[in-house]
Amino acid sequence: MGFISVRLYLLLMSLVLVPSLVPSLAAQSRPYGGALPGYARYLLDATAMPAVEQYDYIVVGGGTAGCPLAATLSGPGGGRVLLLERGGAPSEFPALATAGGFVRTLAMADPAPESDAPAQAFTSEDGVPNVRARVLGGGTAINAGFYSRAHPGWFHGHGEDAEVTNWDMRLVNASYEWVERQMTFQPTVHGWQAAVRAALLEANVTPWNGFTVDHVAGTKVGATTFDASGRRHSAADLLGFARPGRLRVALRATVTRIITNPIDPAARRGRSPQPTVAAIGVVYQDRLLEQHRALLRPGGEVILSAGAIGSPQLLLLSGIGPASDLSYLGIPVAADVPDVGKHMFDNPRNGISVIPSVPIDHSLIQVVGIPSANGSESYLEAASYIVPLAPALSSSGPFIGSTTPLYITVATIMQKVPGPVSEGSLWLPSGNPLESPALRFNYLSRPEDLARCVLGVRRVAEVLESRALDGFRSSVGSTSRRGPVRRDFRIVGTALPVDWRTNDRALANFCLQTVATLWHYHGGCVAGKVVDRDFRVIGARSLRVVDASTFSETPGTNPQATILMMGRYMGLKMIEERHSRRPVRS
Ligand SMILES: Cc1cc2nc3c(=O)[nH]c(=O)nc-3n(C[C@H](O)[C@H](O)[C@H](O)COP(=O)(O)OP(=O)(O)OC[C@H]3O[C@@H](n4cnc5c(N)ncnc54)[C@H](O)[C@@H]3O)c2cc1C
Ligand SMILES: *[C@@H]1O[C@H](CO)[C@@H](O)[C@H](O)[C@H]1NC(C)=O
Ligand SMILES: *[C@@H]1O[C@H](CO)[C@@H](O)[C@H](O)[C@H]1NC(C)=O
């Protein structure tokens, strides 16, 4: 097998390229055709917000769940809603508008909390580079766009929280449908994606299920948030369904704390354990470091939709978490909730990337292979990226003297471990709200996960062996005295062990050595431990968490569909509750 440098491999596999590698790409981009999105009228920079204001609902985090939630809460039967997002609007960052900008967005990722980049880079204590969204629309504004509903079994709960879920499946489906009508499309499959489709079928990932948003065993084409002209649709678009006059979206508004009041023991009632504190509002900071407060009207609620890193971080900063850790940091304890920040999960990604012998199109995930829909096996997907190679690598290579950047196409087939069961935690390095939390996922630390990774990588190898991919093999292949010459792939980085068909131990080592992230991290505020079946924070009143931090398992497939659905679903549920408490005003 042919190799290219370890340096290039690291560059490609992490997909976090050095910004200086891509200067000429930035110049090629154009914003959304100049037109402002329909929701632009709701947006305000936080510096223009008053020092204190009152709302019925304060949604923290304008991401995948936060946008549909805020739009719905402001709609018929809802109330006055404030949505607070630490990042800017997607229209400010042209690379977000198209699938072709995916790699460029990751290349611009910046770890600094004060940076304006729409993707924030971080590295977990495991040493695996990762990113989190920092822009209105959240993950949906920077991700690969693949859209697929959860397996129905996911809604019945999993593991220890099997008893704590309470999904109304009719409303779940209606909420998925609402999202799908607004922002999903059927992709046209060609090039690398079509070849991988055939290869998956040849490797017995069957049956062929055609185009479907359902998570079913076999090979399928899922929906995408990129439309026929290649333009991205994100959760921010859903803000267009807000009721004018009832939604305010503050950008570059970083929430630093939830304001809570102790509840008088004599006035405690209801849920068990009884809440000891009530959320009454939040404090947020604008880009000029001015502090603002948003306070709840009577009967109002604060909802955290800041994602699997942001939501547990904010609970901890607000004194809701493990009492001893909080005291150690000097944060006054509002409610002792030991599991905040615990049970953090990330799906390990292991893949094989090749440089195909023929030029291929850039493609994000469209075709996936699901060997078993219940998550007992791995989950396979493919992408192809066109990435700049020069000038950083040209000094030692054959590219000396070239002034224009060189591009190479890298095609990849990857697998993730669904679930997973290996878990880690998130913690605050200090009481400073602007310091990023630390976290560790403990990838593949449980033998069940490692065993599924071994199966998954073997599947990937089988797919790569298939005749359907012969046209992409390179002429630099191995020569054999025994049989016909078998053209090989030029592999990027770590090669598979030669005895991959039989050697589980060697494949397990490959899994551990090449582990990366598919960015599906979740947990930190899991249902049954930090929030109850209605996503209310245990121990607190008027405070919920609605996002991927409540999941103790990924929905089998890629998570965005289910997180978007959850925002719409919880908005409708909360309006229903509001009506059961008081007369409708609309
Ligand atoms: C590179 C990449 C590719 C991916 N590809 C896919 C894919 O193809 N398909 C798929 O289904 N999933 C994909 N995912 C995963 C998916 O996008 C995420 O799981 C999902 O978007 C997470 O949703 P969330 O609501 O939990 O958090 P987010 O969408 O991240 O929303 C959280 C929001 O809260 C804001 N925030 C955080 N803290 C604060 C604070 N203190 N104050 C104010 N605002 C705050 C953040 O800026 C962010 O906008 C991908 C993710 C990444 C990063
Ligand atoms: C919800 O939709 C799924 C398909 O995605 C279907 O199988 C299921 O029967 C539906 N459930 C209800 C209650 O409508
Ligand atoms: C999951 O599905 C596979 C087949 O796809 C089956 O062999 C296995 O028993 C199932 N496991 C569970 C826990 O249902």
From TrEMBL:
Belongs to the GMC oxidoreductase family. PROSITE patterns: GMC_OXRED_1, GMC_OXRED_2. Residues 1-27 form the signal peptide. Keywords: Disulfide bond, FAD, Flavoprotein, Signal. InterPro entries: FAD/NAD-bd_sf, GMC_Oxidoreductase-Related, GMC_OxRdtase, GMC_OxRdtase_N, GMC_OxRtase_C. GO terms for molecular function: flavin adenine dinucleotide binding; oxidoreductase activity, acting on CH-OH group of donors. It comes from the Eukaryota. Transmembrane segments: none annotated. Its cofactor is FAD. FAD binds at V135, V255, W519, H520, P559, Q560. Disulfide bonds join C453-C511. It holds the Pfam family GMC_oxred_N. This is Glucose-methanol-choline oxidoreductase N-terminal domain-containing protein.
